[in-house]
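tokens incoming
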């Protein structure tokens, strides 16, 4: 192959590559479709070291769906009462109370009863609680002095919130228990 033809071909290739390089930088790539997962979470989960700290590296890792769409998690602080009011309003009217909260993909109230309350308020199943995935179980307990618990019957029987409510509602208070101490006062202190 004559040298002139070889140079012409090489020059043509250089021109084509140069044009292609210019086009690559001049034409922005098509944006990757994104699936946004909006998570409304109660304050306990929104501590900086919890959900926000989990969402940041998840988003930075550019997780993808099977079809190649990028997944982005957006977490929003919403108390359980706010979650209930917003979901009920949006189901009933299609309109938010707080326009700053986009429609949720995931909701995490502080306790399961909020989900039942949403269903009850709209008289339909909005959240299928039987199929809802629980990722934590929180134990709620009563903290008191050992002597007070023993006076109420522990450890011979389990003491529950009903015992505390009954004690607080009884006008005699601790006075109905012969084992009660004067320094406990008449009315139980419940916080």
């Amino acid at each position: 192959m004559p040298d002139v033809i070889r140079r012409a071909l090489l020059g043509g290739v250089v021109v084509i590559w140069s044009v292609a390089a210019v086009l690559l930088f001049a034409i922005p790539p098509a944006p990757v479709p994104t699936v946004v997962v909006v998570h409304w979470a109660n304050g306990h989960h929104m501590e900086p070291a919890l959900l926000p700290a989990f969402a940041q590296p998840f988003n930075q890792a550019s997780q993808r769906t099977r079809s190649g769409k990028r997944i982005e998690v957006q977490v929003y602080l919403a108390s359980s009462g706010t979650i209930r009011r917003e979901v009920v309003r949006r189901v009933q009217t299609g309109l938010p109370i707080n326009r700053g909260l986009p429609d949720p993909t995931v909701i995490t109230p502080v306790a399961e009863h909020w989900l039942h309350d949403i269903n009850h308020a709209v008289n339909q199943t909005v959240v299928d609680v039987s199929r809802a995935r629980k990722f934590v179980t929180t134990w709620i307990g009563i903290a008191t002095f050992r002597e007070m618990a023993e006076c109420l019957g522990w450890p011979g029987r389990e003491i529950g919130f009903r015992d505390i409510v009954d004690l607080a509602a009884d006008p005699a208070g601790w006075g109905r228990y012969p084992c009660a101490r004067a320094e406990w006062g008449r009315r139980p202190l419940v916080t």
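note: The mean pLDDT is 86.
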